[in-house]
């Protein structure tokens, strides 16, 4: 039987009010009960979210910690063993140095580390193994260093925690700073990488050095590129360097000003080295002599740039062994830093030297030497030099380095390229009979 709507309400008026009040009370109770439930659910969701974020943060932090390529007791033991000099304090050469080398798996870095190790110094390397050029070449260099008992940390010089840890584990006497984003032309493609490495990275390293106790003496790689548009030759340290022709040159010039500031404020001993076109075995594939060799052997054309009015470009090509001798002489003659705890207690040395060969050679002459040693004629495309920051001519005045460092280059371009070609054919496994590479 269907219930009528009026049957739901009593006929007595008073009871209607009571019943309606009770009904309203029940609705209010249900409402508050529902709100309370929602509130409890909201609290639960907030708690779950907070728990998730906390756990996620912990897992993320933990994964970064466990994924880090440095840290731990075993790592520290490796660092200390690598940094320990092998020259006895009373030896004729004097006490061994303990050197942190940045960019240790790079071209110049590898050769310097080997030379330091050979004479009994303690060395620890650091390198980020970036992909500017083939990282496998850098890893092969690291393997070579490892075979000589040198430990290379994989890390970035912008990592302040890593640098602080290294200086905490080892009281380095010297830092040889060679890490940098190299190359003039690449700066037009990726300018940020130059600021990150050559400026921010340098400041990060200087901060670690000025806070270290004891403060190390610093030798670092500037560049002949700082001479920029200077047309006075040979280039002297006394010449102007305020007209850079490329972003790379500008970052190196900025580095010279920054290091001077840290020398002045914090008493860091600083020596800047202006390298002139370094070449040789284990070199950089982006350099002209290296890419020329590869393309000539593969039968590909090479691009040879000329300056205005068909003037051949010329470079002061400097063989790697001569550069290494200049670097080690700079380390040996570097005066002590004078600060402690980031506070300067007296003036400290600040020096800049040219390291070149003093015998500029034209690029066509370089190509002809390579053709002779490779026994292959190059296919040349001769074009006018684009406005990419390159300069037409470099020539080093090395009188200051000769006087204060005893620097004396001894390797001609002929001899240096002969050694490079021998290494190149061996490393890449080139077979002259089949004109193929076994390990390309």
From TrEMBL:
State its location(s): Golgi apparatus, Golgi stack membrane
- What PANTHER family does this protein map onto? EPIMERASE-RELATED
A Pfam entry, by short name: Epimerase
**Which stretches make up the NAD-dependent epimerase/dehydratase domain?**
99-333
Subcellular location, principal: Golgi
Record field: catalytic activity = UDP-alpha-D-glucuronate = UDP-alpha-D-galacturonate
Q: Which UniProt keywords apply?
A: Isomerase, Membrane, NAD, Transmembrane, Transmembrane helix
EC number from the UniProt entry: 5.1.3.6
Output the InterPro entries linked to this UniProt entry.
Answer: Epimerase_deHydtase, NAD(P)-bd_dom_sf
The domain of life for this entry's organism is Eukaryota
* Any single GO CC term annotated in Swiss-Prot or TrEMBL for this entry: Golgi cisterna membrane
Answer whether the UniProt record assigns the keyword Isomerase to this protein.
Answer: yes
> Could you tell me one molecular function GO term of this UniProt entry?
UDP-glucuronate 4-epimerase activity
Tell me what organism the protein belongs to: Panicum miliaceum
What are the transmembrane regions? 31-55, 95-116
What family name appears in the similarity comment? Belongs to the NAD(P)-dependent epimerase/dehydratase family.
Q: Give the way it sits in the membrane.
A: Multi-pass membrane protein
Name of the protein in question: UDP-glucuronate 4-epimerase
